[in-house]
Amino acid sequence: MSEFKLESPDIQPGAMIDKRFEANVFGCTGENKSPALKWSGAPQGTKSFALTVYDPDAPTGSGWWHWVVIDIPASVSELKPDAGNHSGANLPAGARQVRIDYGFTGWGGMCPPPGDKPHRYVFTVHALNTERIDIPADATAALAGFMINASTIEKASFTALYGRPA
To answer: Which pTM was predicted?
Structure first.
């Protein structure tokens, strides 16, 4: 096993996430900007990366996908702040975003129900054995997740928290 790691200068593992990363829909009033993310120690044979942000505590029965980025070239080791802009202009060349549970592509910030206990947000980078994930442009995050997991050599994650007062 390699020393594959994912970290963020903006979010500390186990800590509360700053409000600026909160969504600006459904009554949430954050800036809806994605955090900077950096990874290192990718395993040999990595041909591309995928990045996912998932809330397993969302009251949906299936969690909530906040961000899915695929086809990140193997030469890339970070996503800059606001890489999740809906235009895709801030992504590395070749990378693309998948439609998330908010119904659009790009970063969809945290927006747990008011008064819920803080939700867990799992940030994961996947080292993949393929250069591209072959899915339609309008694929769901669940389909992307299936295809990402089918091609994962190794993954690195951290979990942070976010809640809103009642």
So the answer is: 0.96
